[in-house]
Amino acid sequence: MLKNVVAFFICCVSAVTCVAASRSTNTPAKQAASESTLAAVRRSDAADRDAQGKLRKLTQAEHMRRAAVYLSVRAFAEARAHWQTLIDNYPQDPRVPEALLGIGRSYFLEKVYENGYNVFNQLVQDYGPTKEGREALNFSAASLLRMGRFSEAATRYADYVDRFPDGERIDTAHLNVIDTLREAGQPAEALRWVTRTRQRFSGSAVETNAMFAALRLYVAEEEWPDAVLMADELLKRSFPKAVLTSRSEVAYLKAFSLEQAGRKNEAFSAYLAVPDSIDSYYGWLASHVRRVPLIDSVTVFFAAGALAAGWGGRLADHIGALRAMRRCILVTAAALGAAALAPSLPVLFAVLAVAGVANAVTQPAINLFVAEQIPGDRQGLGFGIKQSGIPAAILLSGLALPVLALPLGWRVTMALCALGPLAVGLALPRGERSHVSRRPASRRPSRALLLTAAGAALGTAGPSALGAYLVASSVDVGIEEGAAGLLAALASGLSLAARVWLGARADRRRDYGLAVVVVLLAAGSAGFALMASHATGVFVLGALVAFTLGWGWPGLFNLAVVDSNRETPGSASGVSQTGIYVGAAFGPAMFGVLASASGYGTAWAAVAATTLMSAGVLWIARRASTIPTGSGV
User: Fold this and answer.
1) pLDDT greater than 90 at residue 607
2) Does pLDDT of 38 surpass 60?
3) How does DSSP assign 242-305, residue by residue?
């Protein structure tokens, strides 16, 4: 029966298959040259040793050249041998300070910091005023820092600042004093150096770096109010390449400080304001921190819808589809506008609850409109197009992120999104003819309808988690975040196409029952099971199957409910939508809890089980229905 479904899916998957471009394996000429130079130097060294194996005296330039070759390939001992031979044979040569610095740096790069410190110390004492002496003073401080001698390191860096106010490393020396004093447990002295650095380098990237050092210091000392004030001051500045932080990191630390200070509502808004992009670690981190309240927001929206769906369906049957749609769409537009102005998380939750109730009336009203206004032999396509709105919304929200949300912020984006439903609400035709109330004879739904709602709850719980967790789960199996976003967009597009195609297929076959829905859910459960794998290819295949088949059934589902309840389609849809809202409300939340406790693989395996259970429940509901499947209109 579903031969065409399988063929359609195979074609979609085949269409996105790509071949990786081959990479050249030629060895770069520069690397070959370095290897040949090194080999030549080693041959020369072998020829230039005496009977005891010691290097013979060469010209000063040749010793320095060979040492540089060895240093470039990290052959530190061989490089030191040439520097030391130069020092021993030419103690008065002007290259001796450079050779000493080379020896000290080679120890530093080998992480033999004690030996390096001793060499740097000697160089400072003997050649302090030279460039090499200044470099040695800086490296001696860095060596002390890496040996954990923080107070001594801070003193050395401060000595550099005092002795060489115009030295080559004067800017980094100031910043290093601040960092080493923080490590030494001297926050008050570190803050004094922050002030001194800001005065010395006012208006420069160095001042911004000093301010960031102060922010990190406040965070480390749990001085949350000061951290928030410093973050606010930093966010007013520019962030050129010379700045050692980013706007995202500062915004994240501000949000974190607000959260730790107990200012939860401000913290939530601040986390939302952290710029999120493919290459932003702190944007990614903030998205994980704010996921809990956002999942809570989804839960509030759909829980309110679940409570109101039964009443909403009866209201749609009573006042008519167009009237119910117009009123509720305008309420939705108002809710989006109010959400953009919400001063706190509780207010945002309250607004979302109102929007959830409006949606609980809108969905049955649209189903009623399709049942009344679209010819019976085209209703499969009608419901397919109607239900394609959900994956289309996911696609549009993905596009809105870089175009609107990142440059304008979430509040402006929310306000702009309110214009869409406002325009639709105003565009809906008025002056509809008087509607004959379709109040059901009994408010008690049939056993088949209750089973249908229960199956919908189980079937919606897993797919609802796809939108919230597909990208994060993809990253967890090793897919880059940008590629994960493309996977989500592709899967949404396939789901959209599947819903429309399946609806048109139902019209051609006059097949308006739950049989195809059961098969799609069973196939979707296999896709979710594949997503439990840690193999990237298997996971991607599972995601495509889950989205396309496991989430391609809502149009057929609504068509089956309406077709089995022609007398009161709105009221019946209200009952079935209650199940869908219950699954959408608690599915993502429960998935998040399970994923946090046991990992994404376990969570997707649980989704596979619930989706298969949904297929079983809907199969029982189909058998319990008193209306034969495929009855037509």
Assistant:
1) yes
2) yes
3) TSSS-HHHHHHHHHHHHHHTT-HHHHHHHHHHS---TT-HHHHHHHHHTHHHHHHHHHHHHHHH
